[in-house]
Here is the input.
Amino acid sequence: MRRLVRTRFAPSPTGFMHIGNLRTALYAYLLAKKDGGAFILRIEDTDQNRYVEGAVDVIYDTLKVCGLYWDEGPDIGGNCGPYIQSERMGIYKDYAVKLVEMGKAYYCFCTKERMEALHEEQKANGETPHYDRHCRDLPLDEVQKLLDSGAEYVIRQKVPLGGETIFNDVIFGEIKNPNKDLDDQILIKADGMPTYNFANVVDDHLMGITHIVRGNEYLSSTPKYNLLYEAFGWDIPVYIHAPHIMRDSTHKLSKRDGDAYFGDFINKGFYIPAIINYIALLGWAPKGEREIYSLEELTSEFDVSGISKSPAIFDEVKMKAINAEWLRALPHDEFKTVIMPYVKETVKHEDIDFDLLADCLQPRAELLTDIPEKVDFIDSVPEYSNDLYVSKKMKTTPQTSLDALKSLLPIIESIDDFSFNNIHAKIMEMITEKGVKNGVILFPLRTALSGKAMTPGGGTELAAILGKTETIKRIRDGIAHIEAN
RNA sequence: GGCCCGUUGGUCAAGCGGCUAAGACGCCACCCUUUCACGGUGGAAUCAUGGGUUCGAUUCCCGUACGGGUCACCA
Here is the structure.
């Protein structure tokens, strides 16, 4: 029988959710959920020097708002807990000692000072710094003596001196590494804490992880992981090393431009499902030509064969386009709910037609943060020049605009049912009668109502949004404005 | 530097020995139009490079160039 897929996301709490990490979490989530498997959250905090207040909450919150719910984790428990490494300390040491007993690891009493000197010397000789295996073959009784004397020690992995380690990655295929290039890495540090690499292997096994989704940077250390699995006689998981997300061809996404953290994009006005949609597409391509997917749709469409080998450059312009497409496709009520907080930033008036406003905004909203500026004319008309009444395309001048506004005024005043359709019908009637182009009348109306060159709707829409009283007032103001200059 | 990995338009990418080398974003033009958008139509633009293998290479192999990753008592 096939094992149920179990994936995990194992971030270390740094206080921020890097967009690359979020994508790794997403892929791990999708891989598990596609198969009805389990997605596990584990916090890797073995470095006590890096403790950041509230960092774990950032991880929880980000995953939750993105809809990446976990089946087992520190807060909800599970059968393989605890899910925070700092609470699992005893476990690692026991396994390391077991490894020593099996001859696959050894105690090393080399001091940090000796290591530093060694590395300096190696560097001076043009070598890559590495451990010289000084303690690898220490006689057992001597080891015991040192242990009894309370000497400080670490436990190192005993990597085979020759041969090569071969492993298979779902994305990259077969990868071979000569064992002689592998260092006898530290498993347990002098403070008794496991190193990341070791804790990772032990926990992944103990938690029954079947598929490991992680960044490409682990490709080089995977042989060491596998040697550990083999030493313990454990099943080697399926590896999926995802390519990096880059800022440009030579740099990874960085904090510098505010383009590395999930929160940065929320601040820039991106809609969360669109962010998820876009990052899913960075380094992974679905089968067909569609590219707008909800998390649920991604779950059924996701297939590791679509993950590419080469790094992807993050393109905020493209993400913006995806964002706009998402916003346009939202049902009216949902769109309105999403934008209202942004609308309220500049619109304090309550007596306007927010539903019509939302409809006008919807095809024009790219980023949520663009909205306040788009609707700022609603509360008050900004200062503007009569040049705004000049349009070559609409064939208008301040003079024709003055005429237009003057003939519009009685019509607007006569309308009782001040709905868009009704206003539109009445104005069109007048336009037909006059035998002029629509723009000759409607362009000045829009200008008088907004005082802006670009608005989220035409003259008729703005009138309906603002309501009769305000529309009349603004037409009068417009007339006075033109006459005064 | 050693080892590992990658390279299709500006960007994301499909392709998996034979195609006029998809599609999307962006860009340009036109149409629609009460501004700007939305929408529609069309256009420019790509297989890093040199050798092989093959009747035939974007696709397979080798080298080169370029780029990335990794070599911690960090994760």
